[in-house]
């Protein structure tokens, strides 16, 4: 039996059709990364990373989770130990992440960015650390250099409505070879039940030079911020929700909830959900008026470990897949907007694989022929953006919707090295189609299939987003 080389040209490609589709079509396409959490400050300043630790371990809570599971002390993860000590502990962990996507991603990034094919482990950690540290000072591995190296045409960050988008504005005046654009993410204005909500609303008002005293003020300020973001290239919004909020649209209750909260008083769970429902509905209409894309990231159960949340705060690796009911609320939310003629282009990301078919079928209810793939079942997200999760998402989309209209993959990452995951996705996509050809389930028409692969990898996203 012939064993394929690890991460070779045939990586994730099981037959010659898949290889041809990837190497002759998908591989060549530029990247439109329409959802990420990369630092606009890093890109603007063209940051040269001091060490690979800063790229890999500065904010990647997936690696933090793996290190904790392997028994690494927290001081080597989020503590004040030096860069090499943290890297050495990650190197010690990596071999034992086998069959977790972190194993392949780690080695793929070493190979693509540093031409290092040695398998990282505790024994060679010092050697690889030194080699990567030296190469990270090269121009092609600065923040902007990485984007160019990975053929990124458009990179989209995730931004709070209070942001002045200074880095985006400055970059737009320069010739970088790529665009850096913002996303409008108003979660802090929606989640009225959070402890810091009152302080945030005051800050939001200051960003528009207008105090927020009632619900109409809030809408006026958010409208102003949307206009400001639009002027600076924003064409996408984003919401991180457990599920869509769809209580009765009682504006009086929403008004009461906001005023009580801003006065320092407690509000009921019912009042909070009504407020969220009304505000989401109003925001959706604003997005439609501006021809924006609305992204809905559904299903994360966040900050499960209260002890560690009190120590490290959010985004520290203590979130998980939630088991919320999605279908009914998603239907009500989309239908309300559609009935008003105000349903924007929408991408729905699902975190629980049990709901893949629910979301795929729901998207089809609101495609009205006005835009190709107006409502999308979004790419496999977070815990699911690995081979099995990506294949399940692609299969659900193929079986219930139209794979050919899909806007493709995104990095959804804080690490610039994660752009290699576009390659990872494209290989999986080409392999699925290649297997169907070999099995006689699709015709062996490479030119046509290649054009579909190109669309999913690049062209569909370019047409869908009004950049």
TrEMBL record:
It is an enzyme of class 5 (isomerase). The keyword Isomerase applies. GO terms for molecular function: glucuronate isomerase activity. Keywords: Isomerase. It catalyses: D-glucuronate = D-fructuronate; aldehydo-D-galacturonate = keto-D-tagaturonate. Pathway: Carbohydrate metabolism; pentose and glucuronate interconversion. One of its GO terms (biological process) is D-glucuronate catabolic process. Its EC number is 5.3.1.12. It comes from the Bacteria. It holds the Pfam family UxaC. Belongs to the metallo-dependent hydrolases superfamily. Uronate isomerase family. NCBIfam families: PRK02925.1. This is Uronate isomerase. The gene is uxaC.
